[in-house]
Amino acid sequence: MANTGVRLLRTVFSHEKSISWFPGHMMAGLREMRDQMRTVDLIVETRDARIPLSSINKQFEQVIKGKRRVVVYNKCDLAPTSIQDTVRKVMETRNQRTLFTDTNINKSVRQILDVARETAKSDPMRYPQLVIMVIGMPNVGKSSLINALRRTGLNRGKAANTGAKPGVTRTVSGRIRVLESPAVYLVDTPGVMIPHIPDPITAIKVALTGGIKDNIADDTVLADYLLFRLNRLDHTDYSTVLGIERTDDIGEFLQLLGTKIGALRRGGELDTDKTIQFFLRAFRQGRFGRLCLDELDESSVKTFFISNMEDAPLSKNQAQKAKRAAQRQRSLEKARSKNLK
Question: Do residues 22 and 211 touch, judged by C-beta distance below 8 A?
Answer without folding.
Answer: no
